[in-house]
Design a protein that fits this description.
Largest sheet of chain B: 8 strands, mixed
CATH architecture of the largest domain in chain B: 3-Layer(aba) Sandwich
Structural class of chain B: alpha/beta
CATH topology of the largest domain in chain B: Rossmann fold
CATH class of the largest domain in chain B: Alpha Beta
Distance between the termini of chain C: 31 Å
CATH architecture of one domain in chain C: Orthogonal Bundle
CATH class of one domain in chain C: Mainly Alpha
Largest interface: A-B, 46 and 42 residues
Shape of chain B: globular
Order of helices and strands of chain B: EEEHEEHEHHHEHEHEEHHEE
Radius of gyration of chain C: 23 Å
Number of helices of chain B: 9
Strand content of chain B: 15-25%
Structural class of chain C: mainly alpha
Number of strands of chain C: 0
Helix content of chain B: 25-40%
Oligomer: heterotrimer
Order of helices and strands of chain C: HHHHHHHHHH
Chain lengths: 339, 336, 292
């Protein structure tokens, strides 16, 4: 049995997700970026887990660190970024300790990513079918002919019409929705354990978005893949995710099962985010306004980065390290005065 | 009361190597004084072209645009730029970063329309007008010397709005003004837009792909598909009671947490080609769940199916639409 | 309004800071700046700082190697080479700057109009540029000077003409990219007509990149002017000019009086080198995205 198959058996053999060890365990991840104006504290003490077979959403405003987190898990952080502390545990291994060669083996086979802008994430001068086949040839143990056949199969799986003909298409010949399906096909070609989707539906029409997200959900349910869905759209997270992680300025502020979060948010920021989403109200006057803006992450920051935008703050928020309050049922919040 | 803007039979056709592309095909749209009309549709439906036609940035192939009693459609573009009507129709653009000239300060950007189309008067007059506009959008005067790259996304959006309203236009065309913004900034901008409309009594043509946003700000909504308007109704009525299957599909596609465990019917496939469309076939045929043989023999006209409610479907009176309508909020409450 | 976003400093301060940073990061740019300073000094004050009269001949001390009295030695007519090199800076730099300025202004204007209006204007522009580029550029320059007569003005003219396509096509491409941007549409809605948009809105945005191109182009312009003089077109003796000095000194390669051509040649090389580095530095200062 190959090493990969053995690993898969180990992970599969475990009990259903709540009791099993987490597939992805991020512990206290702190990451800075070196810039001309000093260090930008992009992530600080980020901790959460993703179990087998679940879809976890990461939501927050732009600048909250969601994409930085995704790239850190993939080991693709910009050269100016460096991890100050923390651990990214994946299937028991520490991703931060992996060599480039090990990482190259992992990416595509065990962890895959779907990028934000499908047409630019695909190689514009290479046929899409070949791009899928490339992934298969790199990680699978198959001949070119087998890879071709598997790639056509993958295209059919993501419901691209006329897959044999589309194999030979170039990205510019395909619509945004089709390009995104090709990306999904590439990402799931080797049936990874974890799929990271970074705003996968940006720029897509709402009808195409629905189809793409349904597809994603079907694929992962079928293969028991876990998904880390990064999005700024709370409603999208609400429809497709099992659990949601809310981030603000590089901090995780709340983690909860999705219905819990939408109906009983515990962190003031989460409540404001939900209230600001247009679908939540009928009158424009009822949209909540989040005061202030994201703090400047180049400066020294108080323990709670939401301090200057919060109406519930007190002395502890400025001086003491934030607690982690467990509200039961997997709902935790990092706040001194939760709702 | 006569409508502020009345477009009839508006069409824009582009010759291409494969045939004639019907970007906008026979659109009738009217916008009343002080009314906010929403225009929704997906990419390729022609709403950007329609908006450009109404903003008089491109010339129509056919049709009339009667603005405040005067048909502005036949005026050549070069001349319209200098006509007095130019100042009365203004636009807020989608990407606040791209829509601001990187070389102009905030003051310069807002002052430009005044210099070109308004009465700038002396320096003090001009400054007064610019600062009044900035105050209306909530930007403090100190911002006026900044350049766009020194502003946040929300501030840039406000500058774009200030520039559009400095001449107190009668009609403000908003082309996806918040789709490039974060949800928190979007909330602020939407509230600002609602407030401005009340204060300045402008009419809005609000174009968006986000139906939730349109619902918040618009009195009436028109749905476009492949260059035609397929449904038009008051906002709440459209959401409660969509009559065209495309509208139902759109509404069903809006992400809705309360539908987590359902499998709503999705709109698959892609739209028909807008090039040389066959005249007697409904544009939505081929993707429509309600399709019957008549749909490929006769194109349904846009007709009245209720009070102030128009739909272009042979089966618009059907009691239950094929795709369930959107009726619940994110919290699970039913919205009346 | 956010209480936490810092007010950014005014643009001039930011530019100054960027300049200081670039200079600190990149020692070569610092060196280039120093070199440019020296060249400028020579160009402006050449007549004053030159130790000898550049035109004064002294047949007794002809072809003397570098000594304490004549740092760069003397040439075939006994003239001090150092003085001639210093004074020549004004002519060479002057020709290059004038040629670049002329072709920059005209080329940018033509290219911008072609890029904005397209159609017939673009077609005419294209054919004009093609005509110029159909010739090997230096040969064309030679032809122009030969036809119009040997003079400094004609060198400038020739250099400017053959350089037009460089700026023209660049400006055309830059304007083309910006023509469809949202802020141009916004300007149209604000009552700006075509020419106004081009001059008031678009050109201001392409000037920084064009300026970089111009500074990188200076070195080439110096070489071109010197090259024409080298082959005997343009500047006539006894005017001190680096190209002519190299040409005169070239006859002494075999006989070994190396100082007659090495020093003017080095001056040329250093000037070109200096402008290229300055161009790179300028690009770093003006284009934030290229900085690391």
């Amino acid at each position: 049995m190959t090493a990969l198959a053995a690993k898969r058996a180990l992970v599969d053999g475990a009990a259903p997700h709540a009791e099993a060890p987490p597939l992805l365990a991020i512990e206290n991840l702190t990451l800075d970026f070196r810039t001309r104006q000093g260090a930008v504290h992009a992530l600080d003490g980020v901790s959460f887990e993703v179990f087998r077979g679940e879809i976890v959403g990461v939501v927050g405003e732009s600048g909250s660190g969601k994409s930085v987190l995704a790239y850190a898990v993939m080991g693709l952080t910009d050269a100016a970024g460096y991890v100050r502390s923390g651990r990214i545990g994946f299937a028991g291994r520490d991703m931060l300790g992996e060599t480039a060669a090990q990482l190259s083996d992992t990416l595509g086979r065990e962890i895959s990513m779907i990028f934000q802008s499908p047409r630019t994430a695909l190689n514009p001068i290479r046929r899409v079918g070949l791009q899928i086949a490339d992934v298969l040839l790199r990680h699978g143990n198959m001949t070119r002919r087998e890879a071709h056949a598997r790639a056509v199969e993958a295209l059919a799986q993501v419901r691209v019409p006329d897959p044999e003909r589309r194999f030979d298409a170039y990205p510019f010949e395909l619509s945004g929705g089709l390009c995104q399906r090709v990306m999904i096909a590439m990402a799931i070609a080797c049936t990874p354990f974890l799929l990271i989707a970074d705003e996968p539906t940006t720029g897509l029409d709402v009808t195409t978005q629905a189809v793409v997200m349904d597809l994603l959900r079907d694929q992962v349910r079928a293969a028991n893949t876990s998904v880390l869905l990064i999005t700024h759209d709370l409603a999208l997270a609400g429809e497709y995710c099992d659990r949601v992680v809310v981030m603000h300025a590089g901090h995780v502020v709340e983690v909860a099962p999705v219905e819990r979060l939408l109906q009983q948010p515990a962190h003031p920021y989460s409540a404001l985010l939900i209230g600001a989403t247009p679908g939540a109200t009928t009158r424009v006057e009822d949209l909540s306004v989040i005061p202030g803006g994201l703090p400047d992450q180049r400066q020294a920051l108080p323990p709670c980065r939401f301090l200057h935008r919060c109406t519930r703050s007190d002395a502890r928020c400025a001086s003491e390290k934030l607690p982690t309050r467990h509200m039961g049922d997997g709902h935790l919040v990092r706040c001194w005065n939760p709702l | 009361m006569t409508a502020l803007l009345e477009a009839s039979g508006l069409a824009k056709r582009y010759p291409t190597q494969h045939g004639l592309l019907h970007a906008v095909d026979g659109v009738d749209l009217s916008i009343g004084r002080g009314e906010s009309v929403g225009l929704v549709g997906e990419s390729g439906c022609g709403k950007s072209t329609l908006v450009r036609l109404l903003a008089r940035l491109i010339a129509p192939t056919a049709g009339a645009i009667v603005f405040d009693g005067e048909d502005i459609a036949p005026i050549p573009l070069g001349r319209f730029v200098h006509s007095p009507q130019r100042a009365r129709i203004q636009s807020v653009f989608q990407d606040p970063t791209e829509s601001l000239n990187p070389a102009l300060t905030v003051f310069g950007a807002v002052a430009d329309p005044v210099r070109r189309l308004g009465t700038p008067g002396r320096r003090a007059d001009l400054a007064r007008q610019v600062h009044a506009a900035l105050a209306l959008v909530g930007l403090p005067g100190e911002m006026s010397e900044r350049l766009p790259h020194q502003l946040s996304g929300g501030q840039r959006a406000r500058v774009g709005i200030a520039r559009a309203i400095v001449l107190r236009p009668a009609l403000l065309i908003l082309d996806e003004p918040t789709s490039a913004l974060d949800v928190s900034v979007q909330a602020v901008v939407l509230r600002l837009l609602a407030d401005l409309r009340q204060r300045l009594g402008m009419s809005y043509l609000f174009v968006s792909h986000d139906l939730n946003v349109v619902r918040l700000l618009c009195d009436r909504i028109a749905v476009m598909y492949l260059g035609c308007i397929v449904e038009q109704a008051p906002a709440q009525e459209l959401f409660r009671n969509p009559r065209h299957p495309y509208t139902s599909a759109l509404l069903a596609s809006i992400p809705d947490p309360s539908r987590r465990n359902e499998r709503p019917l999705r709109l698959e496939g892609s739209a028909r080609s807008p090039i040389d469309p066959v005249p007697n076939v409904c544009r939505f045929a081929g993707r429509c769940p309600r399709e019957e043989p008549i749909c490929t023999q006769q194109a349904p006209p846009l007709r009245s199916v209720g009070p102030d409610h128009l739909a272009a479907c042979h089966f618009a009176e059907a009691a239950t639409p094929a795709i369930p309508a959107y009726a619940q909020s994110m919290h699970g409450e039913t919205i009346p | 309004m956010s209480a936490t976003t810092q007010p950014r400093p005014p643009r001039s301060l930011a530019l100054l800071r960027a300049t200081r940073y670039t200079l600190a990061e990149n020692q070569l740019t610092l060196v280039a700046c120093g070199l440019f300073g020296i060249l400028l000094l020579c160009a402006v004050f050449g007549a004053v700082i030159a130790p000898y009269d550049p035109l004064a001949t002294d047949m007794a001390s002809r072809l003397k190697p570098p000594t304490a009295a004549h740092w760069f030695g003397t040439d075939a007519l006994g003239r001090d080479i150092l003085s001639r090199v210093i004074v020549a800076a004004r002519l060479d730099l002057g020709m290059a700057v004038s040629a670049v300025a002329v072709s920059f202004l005209i080329g940018t204007a033509l290219g911008a109009m072609a890029g904005y209006w397209g159609g017939l204007v673009d077609a005419i522009f294209g054919r004009l540029m093609d005509t110029i580029m159909a010739f090997p550029l230096f040969v064309l320059a030679m032809g122009i000077v030969a036809a119009l007569g040997n003079s400094v003005l004609n060198i400038i003219l020739a250099t400017a003409v053959i350089n037009l396509p460089f700026y023209g096509r660049f400006a055309r491409a830059e304007v083309n990219v910006r023509r469809d941007l949202a802020y141009v549409e916004a300007a149209r809605m604000g009552g700006n007509g075509g020419l106004r948009i081009l001059s008031g809105h678009i050109v201001r945005n392409i000037l920084p990149t064009m300026a970089v191109q111009a500074s990188l182009n200076m070195g080439w312009a110096i070489l071109n002017a010197a090259g024409l003089s080298f082959i005997g077109l343009g500047v006539r003796p006894p005017t001190p000019e680096w190209g002519i000095m190299v040409s005169e000194g070239a006859s002494y390669i075999i006989s070994g009086e190396w100082w007659t051509f090495v020093f003017p040649g080095m001056a040329l090389m250093l000037a070109v080198f200096c402008f290229n580095l300055l161009g790179d530095g300028l690009r770093d200062v003006l284009d934030p995205r290229r900085r690391t």
